[in-house]
Known about the structure:
Layout: E1 2-5, H1 8-30, E2 33-37, H2 43-53, E3 62-66, E4 68-70, H3 80-87, E5 99-100, H4 108-123, E6 130-133, E7 158-163, E8 168-173, H5 175-178, E9 183-188, H6 194-201, E10 221-227, H7 228-231
Parallel strand pairs: 1-10, 2-3, 2-6, 3-5, 6-9, 9-10
Antiparallel strand pairs: 4-8, 7-8
Helix pairs in contact: 1-2
The site of 6-phosphogluconic acid has 15 residues, from loops.
Amino acid sequence: xxxxxxxxxxxxxxxxxxxxxxxxxxxxxxxxxxxxxxxxxxxxxxxxxxxxxxxxxxxxxxxxxxxxxxxxxxxxxxxxxxxxxxxxxxxxxxxxxxxxxxxxxxxxxxxxxxxxxxxxxxxxxxxxxxxxxxxxxxxxxxxxxxxxxxxxxxxxxxxxxxxxxxxxxxxxxxxxxxxxxxxxxxxxxxxxxxxxxxxxxxxxxxxxxxxxxxxxxxxxxxxxxxxxxxxxx
Length: 233
Ligand code: 6PG
């Protein structure tokens, strides 16, 4: 389903409500919620809103993990963990043991293997309740970038890759994990994303060049929360 919000503020309100609703439903149904958060800039306002409005949630039953991480220390301004800590984690009573950080400060391959080991211990044969994803102007999502091997990873739940166009290493979750999710929500804001959004939703698009097209859940649902600017014409 594609839902269009009038502007970035309305989008953040809607996205925060969707996250809170999904977590509440998961806790009600299974006693816990396992949610993967996206990084970058767009979700900042959503997380801040969730921190303010998510008071009704039983945070002691919430597990938060990350869709990807830049291979930098957790206090680095580029760190997705730092962004989520500052906008959300510092403001809600989630147990620290239930925040599943990717160790960006470690060697990338080790960080990816360690993260996958922890995710498999967390989920076992369960599934993520919700994976929140962004969309880059080049069509990347999480840190699945055009032309990268991770898009076609058949088995591992997390991998490390050097992203050519960034000349930087990233750790990312992969389609085998993302597609297990009960719910996948893409959060897309701003006119700069309009072309990537349109191309990604175009049935003719290919996953190799538009990694978000590799996201086809086994049985879960995919929703797009976008603002008018991202929807474009
Ligand atoms: C990251 C994100 C990435 C992000 C897109 C969109 O680590 O940057 O996980 O996939 O969602 O790049 O980023 P913006 O929201 O900043 O445009």
